[in-house]
């Protein structure tokens, strides 16, 4: 049986574009009133899907070669498939769910793994630069085409996510699938770097696994904060993560928690009530497993 889990995922972005907004000339998504950088859940799921694809898993949401295909084309060989056959074929449906057109109908599956939007723990400034292509902008215009390149100067991004044990049971999610998810959270972003995405580094991941499929705790982002110059950060060396309230909250609920799976980047400094500590200090009293 799969039990519920609650996830906390932190990564930083330096001179890169974590999630471009096509409605804003591909500028990084922002809450301009608060100067907070935003990243959609779909961007994070895309990293995970691309990582699984590179490992040889067949996905429901994927291109064929370099060509985008319709949902109908992805399931053309599954016209008479039952739900279990669909779950068995596509790991991303087991994880995230999907709407699948089968037998002239739509099957909708709510995935057990869900993330909400990520946001930066610091105030973020944007960098705007002009770029020039070496190709002519038009056949008669031999000058290179001009464009804009938008990046964040530094953003420390926090995501929260859940795994629903009840939904996991329905879509046949396995412990092996969850282990792959943990692996992707650690490795996917660095391995999927492109010109606009290079400069992003996972810093901390916690998956708090509960003892049943009934328990859930609050969004863990509410129990952490960055210690440093909030409005002018430029690198991981200039800040630390204050975890005193997180430690207290996990300890308060330790009887509900079966195990905490974690990884922590060596460059991330942790504090408990202003004093330097290790990740094991934060998780003291809990069963833990390092990824």
From TrEMBL:
A Pfam family assignment: Cas_Cas7
GO BP term (any one): maintenance of CRISPR repeat elements
Official protein name in the record: CRISPR-associated protein, Csh2 family
Organism: Thermosyntropha lipolytica DSM 11003
